[in-house]
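Risk register update: the risk of archive-format incompatibility is retired. Evidence:
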Amino acid sequence: MGNSVLIKDYDYNLTEDKIAQFAAEPRDSSKLLVYKAGQILDAKFSELPEILDSNSSLFFNDAKVIPARIFLKNSNGATIEVFLLQPFKTEHVKALNSKGNCRWSCLIGNKKKWKIDEVLAIEIEETLVQIKQVEDLVVEFTWQGESTFVELLEKIGKLPLPPYIKHEANEHDKGRYQTVYSKIQGSVAAPTAGLHFTDAVLSEIKKKSIAQNFVTLHVSAGTFLPVKVEDARAHDMHQEIYSVNRVAIESILKSKQTIAVGTTSIRVLESLYWAGVNLIECRENPFKIEQFVYEGRPEYSLKASIEAVLQFLNQNKLDSVYGQTSIMVVPGYEFKVVKGLITNFHQPKSTLLLLISALLGDNWEKVYAHALDNGYRFLSYGDSSLLLP
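Archived output:
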Protein backbone atom coordinates (compact mmCIF):
# COMPACT_ATOMS: atom_id res chain seq x y z
CA MET A 1 0.00 0.00 0.00
CA GLY A 2 1.01 3.63 -0.18
CA ASN A 3 1.34 3.93 -3.96
CA SER A 4 -0.61 6.58 -5.86
CA VAL A 5 -4.19 5.76 -6.85
CA LEU A 6 -4.94 7.84 -9.95
CA ILE A 7 -8.64 8.69 -9.92
CA LYS A 8 -8.71 9.04 -13.72
CA ASP A 9 -8.34 5.25 -13.88
CA TYR A 10 -11.70 4.86 -12.10
CA ASP A 11 -13.85 6.79 -14.50
CA TYR A 12 -16.52 5.71 -16.96
CA ASN A 13 -19.17 7.46 -19.05
CA LEU A 14 -22.36 7.64 -16.97
CA THR A 15 -25.04 9.50 -18.91
CA GLU A 16 -28.11 10.97 -17.21
CA ASP A 17 -30.47 8.49 -18.83
CA LYS A 18 -28.71 5.67 -16.93
CA ILE A 19 -29.35 7.29 -13.52
CA ALA A 20 -32.55 5.94 -11.97
CA GLN A 21 -34.87 8.73 -10.85
CA PHE A 22 -37.45 6.37 -9.34
CA ALA A 23 -37.07 2.98 -7.69
CA ALA A 24 -38.33 -0.23 -9.26
CA GLU A 25 -41.72 -1.48 -8.09
CA PRO A 26 -41.99 -3.89 -6.44
CA ARG A 27 -38.61 -3.64 -4.73
CA ASP A 28 -37.39 -7.09 -5.72
CA SER A 29 -38.25 -6.63 -9.42
CA SER A 30 -34.97 -4.77 -9.98
CA LYS A 31 -32.29 -6.40 -12.08
CA LEU A 32 -29.45 -8.29 -10.43
CA LEU A 33 -26.03 -8.64 -12.06
CA VAL A 34 -24.25 -11.66 -10.62
CA TYR A 35 -20.46 -11.68 -10.90
CA LYS A 36 -18.90 -14.92 -9.71
CA ALA A 37 -15.32 -16.01 -10.31
CA GLY A 38 -15.00 -13.88 -13.44
CA GLN A 39 -18.37 -14.84 -15.00
CA ILE A 40 -21.41 -12.57 -15.34
CA LEU A 41 -25.05 -13.67 -15.12
CA ASP A 42 -28.17 -11.50 -15.51
CA ALA A 43 -30.97 -12.18 -13.04
CA LYS A 44 -33.81 -10.59 -11.07
CA PHE A 45 -33.30 -9.57 -7.46
CA SER A 46 -36.17 -11.85 -6.41
CA GLU A 47 -33.93 -14.77 -7.48
CA LEU A 48 -31.21 -13.85 -4.96
CA PRO A 49 -32.15 -16.53 -2.37
CA GLU A 50 -31.67 -19.35 -4.88
CA ILE A 51 -28.40 -17.84 -6.18
CA LEU A 52 -26.76 -17.47 -2.76
CA ASP A 53 -24.79 -20.42 -1.41
CA SER A 54 -26.32 -21.90 1.73
CA ASN A 55 -23.06 -21.31 3.65
CA SER A 56 -23.36 -17.54 3.13
CA SER A 57 -23.89 -15.09 5.97
CA LEU A 58 -25.43 -11.71 5.15
CA PHE A 59 -24.64 -8.54 7.08
CA PHE A 60 -27.17 -5.71 6.66
CA ASN A 61 -26.95 -2.06 7.71
CA ASP A 62 -30.12 -1.32 9.68
CA ALA A 63 -29.64 2.47 9.74
CA LYS A 64 -32.76 4.56 9.14
CA VAL A 65 -32.81 7.85 7.25
CA ILE A 66 -34.02 10.92 9.12
CA PRO A 67 -35.73 13.96 7.50
CA ALA A 68 -32.46 15.88 7.65
CA ARG A 69 -33.29 18.91 5.44
CA ILE A 70 -34.87 21.89 7.20
CA PHE A 71 -35.84 25.09 5.35
CA LEU A 72 -36.01 28.38 7.25
CA LYS A 73 -36.62 32.05 6.44
CA ASN A 74 -34.55 34.91 7.85
CA SER A 75 -35.96 38.33 8.73
CA ASN A 76 -35.52 39.48 5.12
CA GLY A 77 -37.35 36.47 3.69
CA ALA A 78 -34.22 34.71 2.38
CA THR A 79 -34.34 30.90 2.45
CA ILE A 80 -31.78 29.14 4.65
CA GLU A 81 -31.34 25.37 4.37
CA VAL A 82 -30.04 23.46 7.37
CA PHE A 83 -28.82 19.96 6.49
CA LEU A 84 -28.22 17.84 9.59
CA LEU A 85 -25.02 15.81 9.49
CA GLN A 86 -24.54 14.38 12.97
CA PRO A 87 -25.18 15.32 16.59
CA PHE A 88 -22.63 17.72 18.06
CA LYS A 89 -20.57 16.04 20.80
CA THR A 90 -23.26 13.50 21.68
CA GLU A 91 -24.64 10.15 20.46
CA HIS A 92 -27.37 9.81 17.84
CA VAL A 93 -29.86 8.07 20.13
CA LYS A 94 -29.45 10.68 22.85
CA ALA A 95 -29.75 13.62 20.43
CA LEU A 96 -32.76 12.25 18.56
CA ASN A 97 -34.60 11.47 21.79
CA SER A 98 -33.69 14.74 23.50
CA LYS A 99 -36.45 17.05 24.73
CA GLY A 100 -36.17 20.84 24.71
CA ASN A 101 -32.69 21.30 23.31
CA CYS A 102 -30.03 19.71 21.11
CA ARG A 103 -27.12 20.69 18.87
CA TRP A 104 -26.10 19.31 15.46
CA SER A 105 -23.20 19.72 13.08
CA CYS A 106 -24.76 20.85 9.81
CA LEU A 107 -24.27 22.01 6.27
CA ILE A 108 -25.92 25.39 5.77
CA GLY A 109 -27.25 26.61 2.45
CA ASN A 110 -27.22 30.40 1.94
CA LYS A 111 -25.01 30.60 5.04
CA LYS A 112 -24.01 34.24 4.44
CA LYS A 113 -27.61 35.28 5.10
CA TRP A 114 -27.60 33.83 8.63
CA LYS A 115 -25.53 35.46 11.34
CA ILE A 116 -24.11 33.61 14.31
CA ASP A 117 -26.62 33.72 17.22
CA GLU A 118 -29.42 35.07 14.97
CA VAL A 119 -32.54 33.17 16.04
CA LEU A 120 -34.80 31.78 13.31
CA ALA A 121 -38.03 29.99 14.14
CA ILE A 122 -40.58 27.48 12.90
CA GLU A 123 -43.99 27.06 14.52
CA ILE A 124 -45.47 23.61 14.13
CA GLU A 125 -48.75 22.55 15.76
CA GLU A 126 -48.43 25.24 18.45
CA THR A 127 -44.82 24.27 19.19
CA LEU A 128 -42.29 27.03 18.55
CA VAL A 129 -38.90 25.69 17.47
CA GLN A 130 -36.12 28.27 17.79
CA ILE A 131 -32.99 27.66 15.74
CA LYS A 132 -29.66 29.45 15.85
CA GLN A 133 -26.11 28.90 14.66
CA VAL A 134 -24.12 28.92 17.91
CA GLU A 135 -20.79 28.50 16.18
CA ASP A 136 -19.65 27.88 12.64
CA LEU A 137 -21.79 25.05 11.19
CA VAL A 138 -23.14 24.07 14.63
CA VAL A 139 -26.88 24.63 14.99
CA GLU A 140 -28.87 24.62 18.22
CA PHE A 141 -32.57 23.71 18.37
CA THR A 142 -34.71 24.81 21.33
CA TRP A 143 -38.41 24.05 21.92
CA GLN A 144 -41.00 23.64 24.66
CA GLY A 145 -43.13 20.60 25.41
CA GLU A 146 -42.72 16.83 25.51
CA SER A 147 -41.89 16.19 21.85
CA THR A 148 -38.57 14.50 21.18
CA PHE A 149 -36.29 15.97 18.53
CA VAL A 150 -36.97 13.11 16.13
CA GLU A 151 -40.73 13.69 16.51
CA LEU A 152 -40.20 17.35 15.63
CA LEU A 153 -38.04 16.37 12.65
CA GLU A 154 -40.88 14.30 11.22
CA LYS A 155 -42.91 17.53 11.09
CA ILE A 156 -40.34 20.16 10.09
CA GLY A 157 -37.78 18.17 8.08
CA LYS A 158 -37.66 16.79 4.54
CA LEU A 159 -36.15 13.52 3.36
CA PRO A 160 -32.65 14.12 1.92
CA LEU A 161 -32.71 12.42 -1.47
CA PRO A 162 -29.32 12.28 -3.24
CA PRO A 163 -28.41 15.33 -5.37
CA TYR A 164 -28.62 13.36 -8.65
CA ILE A 165 -32.30 12.51 -8.05
CA LYS A 166 -34.04 15.48 -9.56
CA HIS A 167 -37.53 15.33 -8.03
CA GLU A 168 -38.39 16.65 -4.59
CA ALA A 169 -38.91 13.99 -1.94
CA ASN A 170 -42.60 13.02 -1.79
CA GLU A 171 -44.77 10.76 0.36
CA HIS A 172 -43.81 7.72 -1.70
CA ASP A 173 -40.10 8.41 -1.18
CA LYS A 174 -40.62 8.50 2.59
CA GLY A 175 -41.17 4.76 2.56
CA ARG A 176 -39.26 3.77 -0.57
CA TYR A 177 -36.00 5.46 0.44
CA GLN A 178 -35.84 3.24 3.54
CA THR A 179 -35.00 -0.45 3.72
CA VAL A 180 -37.76 -2.74 5.00
CA TYR A 181 -35.49 -3.60 7.95
CA SER A 182 -34.41 -0.03 8.79
CA LYS A 183 -34.44 0.49 12.54
CA ILE A 184 -31.77 2.79 13.99
CA GLN A 185 -32.48 6.44 13.15
CA GLY A 186 -29.64 8.80 12.29
CA SER A 187 -28.55 8.44 8.64
CA VAL A 188 -28.79 11.30 6.15
CA ALA A 189 -28.56 8.89 3.21
CA ALA A 190 -30.00 5.42 2.77
CA PRO A 191 -27.86 2.27 2.68
CA THR A 192 -29.25 1.76 -0.81
CA ALA A 193 -28.02 -1.78 -1.45
CA GLY A 194 -30.77 -2.89 0.91
CA LEU A 195 -33.61 -1.11 -0.91
CA HIS A 196 -34.20 -4.19 -3.10
CA PHE A 197 -34.99 -6.54 -0.22
CA THR A 198 -38.61 -7.43 0.51
CA ASP A 199 -40.04 -9.41 3.40
CA ALA A 200 -40.59 -12.27 0.93
CA VAL A 201 -36.94 -12.30 -0.18
CA LEU A 202 -35.76 -12.20 3.45
CA SER A 203 -38.14 -15.06 4.27
CA GLU A 204 -36.74 -17.20 1.42
CA ILE A 205 -33.19 -16.45 2.59
CA LYS A 206 -34.16 -17.57 6.09
CA LYS A 207 -35.68 -20.81 4.74
CA LYS A 208 -32.29 -21.58 3.19
CA SER A 209 -30.73 -21.19 6.66
CA ILE A 210 -28.58 -18.28 5.47
CA ALA A 211 -27.63 -16.21 8.51
CA GLN A 212 -28.93 -12.63 8.64
CA ASN A 213 -26.98 -10.20 10.82
CA PHE A 214 -27.37 -6.47 11.42
CA VAL A 215 -24.81 -3.74 11.95
CA THR A 216 -25.37 0.02 12.01
CA LEU A 217 -23.50 2.72 10.15
CA HIS A 218 -25.07 6.17 9.94
CA VAL A 219 -24.45 7.13 6.32
CA SER A 220 -23.22 10.72 5.98
CA ALA A 221 -23.55 13.22 3.15
CA GLY A 222 -19.86 12.62 2.45
CA THR A 223 -20.79 9.42 0.65
CA PHE A 224 -21.83 11.56 -2.35
CA LEU A 225 -18.61 13.59 -2.52
CA PRO A 226 -16.59 12.93 -5.69
CA VAL A 227 -12.83 12.55 -5.51
CA LYS A 228 -11.51 15.84 -6.89
CA VAL A 229 -7.76 15.27 -6.47
CA GLU A 230 -5.55 13.51 -9.00
CA ASP A 231 -4.25 11.01 -6.45
CA ALA A 232 -7.29 9.55 -4.67
CA ARG A 233 -5.15 8.88 -1.61
CA ALA A 234 -5.11 12.65 -0.98
CA HIS A 235 -8.92 12.70 -0.71
CA ASP A 236 -10.13 13.62 2.79
CA MET A 237 -12.39 10.69 3.66
CA HIS A 238 -15.60 11.43 5.55
CA GLN A 239 -16.19 10.05 9.04
CA GLU A 240 -19.24 7.96 9.95
CA ILE A 241 -20.62 6.55 13.20
CA TYR A 242 -20.99 2.76 13.52
CA SER A 243 -22.09 0.18 16.06
CA VAL A 244 -22.07 -3.63 16.13
CA ASN A 245 -23.80 -5.87 18.66
CA ARG A 246 -22.41 -9.02 20.23
CA VAL A 247 -24.57 -11.38 18.13
CA ALA A 248 -23.22 -9.94 14.86
CA ILE A 249 -19.63 -9.99 16.15
CA GLU A 250 -19.91 -13.64 17.14
CA SER A 251 -21.49 -14.44 13.77
CA ILE A 252 -18.36 -13.19 11.99
CA LEU A 253 -16.39 -16.01 13.60
CA LYS A 254 -19.00 -18.59 12.58
CA SER A 255 -19.38 -17.33 9.00
CA LYS A 256 -17.90 -19.34 6.14
CA GLN A 257 -18.73 -16.74 3.48
CA THR A 258 -19.40 -13.25 4.82
CA ILE A 259 -21.36 -11.15 2.34
CA ALA A 260 -21.90 -7.48 3.07
CA VAL A 261 -25.16 -5.88 1.96
CA GLY A 262 -23.82 -2.53 0.83
CA THR A 263 -20.52 -0.68 0.98
CA THR A 264 -21.60 0.75 4.35
CA SER A 265 -21.70 -2.76 5.82
CA ILE A 266 -18.23 -3.43 4.39
CA ARG A 267 -16.97 -0.27 6.10
CA VAL A 268 -18.31 -1.52 9.43
CA LEU A 269 -17.00 -5.08 9.12
CA GLU A 270 -13.53 -4.13 7.95
CA SER A 271 -13.36 -1.35 10.57
CA LEU A 272 -14.28 -3.88 13.26
CA TYR A 273 -11.30 -6.05 12.25
CA TRP A 274 -8.96 -3.09 12.64
CA ALA A 275 -10.56 -2.16 15.95
CA GLY A 276 -9.61 -5.65 17.12
CA VAL A 277 -6.05 -5.10 15.93
CA ASN A 278 -5.98 -1.78 17.79
CA LEU A 279 -7.09 -3.61 20.94
CA ILE A 280 -4.40 -6.28 20.51
CA GLU A 281 -1.79 -3.53 20.16
CA CYS A 282 -3.25 -1.57 23.13
CA ARG A 283 -3.81 1.59 21.07
CA GLU A 284 -5.81 4.57 22.32
CA ASN A 285 -9.36 5.02 21.01
CA PRO A 286 -9.37 1.53 19.43
CA PHE A 287 -12.80 1.97 17.83
CA LYS A 288 -11.88 5.21 16.07
CA ILE A 289 -10.69 3.97 12.68
CA GLU A 290 -8.48 6.27 10.63
CA GLN A 291 -8.50 6.63 6.84
CA PHE A 292 -5.52 4.36 6.18
CA VAL A 293 -5.59 2.40 9.42
CA TYR A 294 -4.23 -0.66 7.64
CA GLU A 295 -0.95 0.77 6.34
CA GLY A 296 2.23 -0.56 7.89
CA ARG A 297 0.34 -2.82 10.30
CA PRO A 298 1.33 -6.42 11.17
CA GLU A 299 -0.91 -9.33 10.17
CA TYR A 300 -3.31 -10.82 12.71
CA SER A 301 -5.84 -13.54 12.05
CA LEU A 302 -9.51 -12.65 11.81
CA LYS A 303 -10.11 -14.95 14.79
CA ALA A 304 -7.55 -13.12 16.95
CA SER A 305 -8.98 -9.72 16.05
CA ILE A 306 -12.64 -10.59 16.66
CA GLU A 307 -11.83 -12.42 19.89
CA ALA A 308 -10.09 -9.24 21.09
CA VAL A 309 -13.30 -7.31 20.45
CA LEU A 310 -15.37 -9.91 22.31
CA GLN A 311 -12.93 -9.79 25.22
CA PHE A 312 -13.39 -6.00 25.30
CA LEU A 313 -17.17 -6.50 25.51
CA ASN A 314 -16.81 -9.02 28.34
CA GLN A 315 -14.38 -6.90 30.33
CA ASN A 316 -16.59 -3.83 30.07
CA LYS A 317 -19.92 -5.70 30.40
CA LEU A 318 -21.20 -4.36 27.07
CA ASP A 319 -23.52 -5.82 24.44
CA SER A 320 -22.34 -3.56 21.58
CA VAL A 321 -19.32 -1.59 20.44
CA TYR A 322 -19.54 1.97 19.12
CA GLY A 323 -17.03 3.88 17.06
CA GLN A 324 -16.20 6.26 14.25
CA THR A 325 -14.69 5.21 10.96
CA SER A 326 -12.97 7.09 8.16
CA ILE A 327 -11.59 3.93 6.55
CA MET A 328 -10.87 4.39 2.85
CA VAL A 329 -10.73 1.11 0.95
CA VAL A 330 -8.63 1.56 -2.18
CA PRO A 331 -7.22 -0.88 -4.77
CA GLY A 332 -4.55 -3.01 -3.13
CA TYR A 333 -6.44 -3.39 0.13
CA GLU A 334 -6.77 -7.00 1.32
CA PHE A 335 -10.23 -7.64 2.77
CA LYS A 336 -10.05 -9.22 6.20
CA VAL A 337 -13.72 -10.08 6.81
CA VAL A 338 -15.79 -9.74 3.65
CA LYS A 339 -15.83 -12.33 0.84
CA GLY A 340 -18.67 -10.88 -1.24
CA LEU A 341 -20.87 -7.84 -1.68
CA ILE A 342 -24.42 -6.94 -2.67
CA THR A 343 -24.41 -3.38 -3.97
CA ASN A 344 -25.81 -0.91 -6.50
CA PHE A 345 -23.78 0.70 -9.31
CA HIS A 346 -21.75 3.68 -8.16
CA GLN A 347 -20.67 7.05 -9.51
CA PRO A 348 -17.50 7.47 -11.56
CA LYS A 349 -14.47 8.76 -9.65
CA SER A 350 -16.06 7.97 -6.28
CA THR A 351 -14.64 6.36 -3.14
CA LEU A 352 -17.36 3.70 -3.55
CA LEU A 353 -16.04 2.74 -6.99
CA LEU A 354 -12.54 2.52 -5.53
CA LEU A 355 -13.91 0.04 -2.99
CA ILE A 356 -15.49 -2.02 -5.79
CA SER A 357 -12.14 -2.05 -7.60
CA ALA A 358 -10.39 -3.17 -4.42
CA LEU A 359 -12.78 -6.15 -4.33
CA LEU A 360 -12.81 -7.03 -8.05
CA GLY A 361 -9.50 -5.68 -9.31
CA ASP A 362 -9.58 -4.53 -12.94
CA ASN A 363 -12.69 -6.68 -13.50
CA TRP A 364 -14.80 -3.78 -12.18
CA GLU A 365 -14.55 -2.38 -15.73
CA LYS A 366 -15.96 -5.60 -17.19
CA VAL A 367 -18.87 -5.54 -14.72
CA TYR A 368 -19.72 -1.88 -15.32
CA ALA A 369 -19.41 -2.19 -19.11
CA HIS A 370 -21.87 -5.10 -18.99
CA ALA A 371 -24.28 -3.12 -16.86
CA LEU A 372 -24.12 -0.10 -19.16
CA ASP A 373 -24.63 -2.24 -22.27
CA ASN A 374 -27.52 -4.25 -20.84
CA GLY A 375 -29.91 -1.63 -19.55
CA TYR A 376 -29.04 -1.63 -15.86
CA ARG A 377 -30.15 1.44 -13.90
CA PHE A 378 -27.49 3.20 -11.85
CA LEU A 379 -27.02 4.81 -8.41
CA SER A 380 -29.32 4.93 -5.36
CA TYR A 381 -32.65 4.00 -6.97
CA GLY A 382 -30.97 1.78 -9.57
CA ASP A 383 -30.41 -1.95 -9.97
CA SER A 384 -28.29 -4.32 -7.91
CA SER A 385 -25.28 -6.59 -8.19
CA LEU A 386 -23.95 -9.60 -6.31
CA LEU A 387 -20.17 -9.57 -6.47
CA LEU A 388 -18.34 -12.79 -5.55
CA PRO A 389 -14.71 -12.49 -6.67
